[in-house]
Amino acid sequence: MKNQAGSGEGASAGAGAAPDAGADPAEPQEALAGVVARLRDELAGMRRAMRNRAVIEQAKGMLVERLGVGPDEAFDHLVRLSQRTNIKLAEVAAALVGATAPAPETDQPAAFLDDELDQYLAHARRRAAGRPVPEQPRARQPEVEALQAQHQLLSARITTAREYPQLAETVAEATVGWPAPAAVSILLRDPADQLQPVGGYGDDAAAPLAAAAGTAFSDSDTVWVADTGDATMRSVLAVPLSAGTEVVGVLAVGWREPTELTAQAHRYLVALAAPIGGRVGRLTTAELPATEADPTRAVLDAVPTPGVLLGPVRDDEGRVVDFRFEYANAAAAAQLTALAGPDATDRTLLAVLPDTGSRLLLGEFARVLADGEPARLGDVTIDAAADGTERSLVARFDATRLGDGVLCLWQRRSTAEALHDQLLQAERIGRLGSFRWDLRTGAARWSPEMYRLLGRTEEQGALPLSDSGEYVHADDWYAVQEAIRGALLAGRAFTVEHRLADAPGRRLRLSGEPEFDSDGAVWAIRGTAQDVTEERAVESQLRRAQEALAAQKQRLRAESRAAESMRDALLPTDPELTATPGISVTGLCRSSEATGRVAGDWYDVFALRSGPAGASTYLVVGDVAGAGLAATVAAARLRNAVRAYAVLGMDPGELLSALNRMIGELGAGQLATLVVARYQPAEHRMQWAAAGQAAPLRYAPDGSASVLTGPLGLPVGAAPDIAYQQAAVDLPPGERLLLYTDGLVVRRDRTLASGLEALLHVGEHVDLGDPAALVDHVTATLGSAPDDDLCVVVAAPTAE
């Protein structure tokens, strides 16, 4: 067949290549183009055949191995399959090979869980598989078809039932799949959380029936007792009835003889609880009222939750002062009776609930009546002690205006429900979701916030552990794997952070712990996931701020060291202090420990051997505004300028005026305070001038002191063209003169007078020739350390 097809193909090609007897010899170019096109097609076909040959050979090899046939027989199998399916031979071979080929590799690891963890999960599932589970048939059997048909019929009857006894009869009449029951009972929860029968069939008051119903209600789970040991009712099935997420009652079915239910019968019998639960609150225990009944009351009666129609009670001025109960449905009447007694609905709102009514409900209901806007009050607590009720409860209230009254519905909230909502709100506020992975079944359970964190809907469902890696950034896979490995293999709790794969800017912190079975094996992992993106961003900002602060502190320390070194270089050396004819001078500069920075305080002492005033010694104490290196540099400029002007023979007043002009002309914008004094030993005379600094103090030989009188000018740089005045005083040997900056006497917690008082008496207590002792005594007297840097200079004329 293959050879014949090839011969036919060649014959066709040869026939196509033969020149047409009727062809026009005048068109050789068109004939040549046709030949070139044919040859190109043949070449392309040959290339395709060569590419296909590899996959065909692979398919032949697979068939040889699996069918135990030779290569030719394997090829014949491929050909026959191609002919039967009308699919090209190469495509058939590719499909066969592709079915067993591994998936192409990706840039990420092949699986979120590596082989070791995957084997652990497989082992957990195998252990769980050892427990009996209902067999799920692959196809519906005839008995299943019959059960399904019966279920559809019963569901329709339940939907059209008008009272609870009809529901019980409907269940009792169903006998496909199980024996006819001897009793059917429908019980509903009353306001006191007790079960009350509302519809029954047969011996529905049997004790085993009530006991199983109570257990199903309290556990919110189906109860099947194959043999109760009670002759009145040997087998019992009790199924909780749910309205939404709330258990509102129980369907109980009983048989007098021991009964066995197949898995399918059990399933379909339990499934009847769903349509019955949907009818709870819409039925009565007797016939519905006639059509002439009040439609508002009919609506309230049809509502499964407690509801009342309230009428306003007004005072003489028309203000709403209370509400009376116009009508209450059965559920509301039952709850009000349980709260305040059988006459509750005959009283007013404030009479039943004096505290909650006056504090909250009355105002809200009056507003609803006035503006027509509905009100929703969440988790209102009715406290038995405050309201004088029989019990406390928590409920949600909804109120809306209806005619001249207010329609109020409420839903009682159990402590567990309130705490559940509180937990959900806490998760939302904290951006924290919770999860649980069951290793035996592979199932996962997420809280609502977990879905929001991962951008997944509840309809999509929670991802099992093995698929959760799609949300983990590839660079964080290893850290998450190691955390899960520790939980599965070592039973350790873990906390690990990772970035999201689709949003690397977001970070989640996973915290989990393993759950153990009775054998000590890990069978589940539960934990939380919290969005810590903002937390990490704040930490990053704080870290950068701390780094910037540390760098700033480092710069300040370096600047402070440089400023201190420069200031020390500015201060006169010991040789300079001893080279002052006719006068002995000591000085001290000290930085404040409170600021940790070097301020602009400085002093200078230098002697001139000649000049217009003859030999003289200059004493200078100054304070430049500011601190740090800039203030120290400014102090160095002033020091050099003072020395230059002194060499020119300027007296203290002229010298300060010149400094002020210099600062103004240079535009430095600098302020400084100074005291400049010039001592002429030949006359024992001291001339001085002050610019914004305190006047010097004069100490007599007995230690008494006085403040020198004289003009005090503004700081240099404060205003242009200031003419500073000077004063003179005789300073004979034995007396002393003190020049100081304000840091010595100024304190935040003391007045300036207190500092001056301490200075005036310091000579009575310490040797004025010791500046350090002088400063320490003043500090001790004032009771606090200096707030700023300080400088002092003490000068004592000698007899020479």
Automatic annotation (TrEMBL):
Protein name per UniProt: Transcription antitermination regulator
Keywords: Coiled coil, Hydrolase, Kinase, Transcription, Transcription regulation, Transferase
Region (Disordered): 1-28
Residue ranges occupied by any PAC domain in the UniProt entry: 494-544
Keyword GTP-binding: no
Domain ANTAR: 36-97
Gene Ontology terms, MF aspect: kinase activity; phosphatase activity; RNA binding
Coiled-coil segments on the chain, per record: 535-566
